[in-house]
Amino acid sequence: MIGPLRRRSSWPSSIATGLIGWVGFAIIVPLALGYAGSLRELLILAVIAAVVQVAVLRAGFTILRLDRGLVAGAAWGGVTAAAIVAAEMCFSATLRQHPWLALATAVYVGIPVGAFLSYFHRDDRAIEAEAAGAGRPVDYGRDAHWLDPFVYGALAYEIALVPRTPEVAISAAVVGMIVGVVAAGVSHFILSRWGNAPATIPAAMLAGAVLGAPTGFLFRGYAASLLLPLAAAGALAGALTFLTTALVGRRLALRERGA
C-alpha cells in the first residue's frame, strides 16, 4: 500500500475499512442464502452506508469516546449501522422485503467496523509514540500492508472465476477479499512457525484449495456463467489466493531476517 493507506487510522484507511465490511457482508449474506439477482442496488446501498458511518464516527471520534477503547467503538458502530440501514429502508424496497435480516446484517457489520476504527487509532498512536520516544522515523512494519491481502484475494478469485457477468465479478472480488485475509492470517501465524520456508508454499496451496472449494457454492446462483464446476472454481481460487499470500509472506520473512 502507498501513501495514507499505510497508516490504518488515516481517513482513507477508515473509508476502506468501512467499505470492506459493508460491501463484503451486503454481498456475502445474500449469496449464502442463494440470491441470484442483480447486485447493483445492494452494492450502492452498502457503499453509501460505509461512507456515512465512517464519516459520522470519525467526525465524532472524541465526543463518542472512540479514542478511549474498543467497547465504545463497537457500541457506536452497531448503533450507527442500525440507524443508517433503517433510513435506507425508506428508499429501498429490497431492504423492506427482509427488514430484520437487513438490520441484523447491519449491526453485525457495524460493530466490528466501529471496533476496528478504535483499535487502529490506538495501535497507530502506540507505534508512533514508540518511534518518537526512540527518536526514529515511524515504521508501521507489516501493519503498513494491512490492505494487501484483500487485494490478493480479490485478484485471485477474479482470475480463477473468469467473470462473464457484473454479478460474478462483484461477488468474486468480495469473496476473494475475505479469503485473502484468512490466507494472510495462515501465513503470518502458522507458516511463520517454519520461517515461511519454501516447503510451506505447496502446503499453503493445498490448504487454500480445501478452504476455497466450499466458497464456490456461494456462486451457485450464477453457476450458468462459470466456466468450471462450483467446487473446482472455488478450489482453484483458494489455491491461488494462498499461493500469493505464502509467497509474499516468505518475501517479508526474508526481508525481516535481512536475507
Essential attributes:
259 residues, mainly alpha, 2 domains, flat
Number of strands: 0
Stretches where pLDDT is under 50 for at least 5 consecutive residues are none
User: In what range is the share of β-strand residues?
Assistant: under 5%
Give the distance, in angstroms, between the N- and C-terminal Cα atoms: 22 Å
Number of helices: 9
User: What value does the average pLDDT take?
Assistant: 92
Shape: flat
Question: Rg, please?
Answer: 19 Å
The ordered H/E elements are HHHHHHHHH
Helix content: over 70%
Explain the overall architecture.
It is a single chain. With 259 residues, the protein is an all-alpha fold. The chain folds into 2 domains: 3-139, no CATH class; 147-256, no CATH class. 71% of the residues lie in helices and 0% in strands. The protein has helices at residues 11-32, 40-59, 70-89, 93-97, 99-134, 148-161, 166-189, 200-215, 230-256. The radius of gyration is 19 Å and the shape is flat.
List the helices and strands and how they pair.
Blueprint: H1 11-32, H2 40-59, H3 70-89, H4 93-97, H5 99-134, H6 148-161, H7 166-189, H8 200-215, H9 230-256
Helix pairs in contact: 1-2, 1-5, 1-7, 2-3, 2-5, 3-5, 6-7, 6-9, 7-8, 7-9, 8-9
Gist?
With 259 residues, this protein is mainly alpha-helical. The chain has helices at 11-32, 40-59, 70-89, 93-97, 99-134, 148-161, 166-189, 200-215, 230-256. It has two domains: 3-139, no CATH class; 147-256, no CATH class.
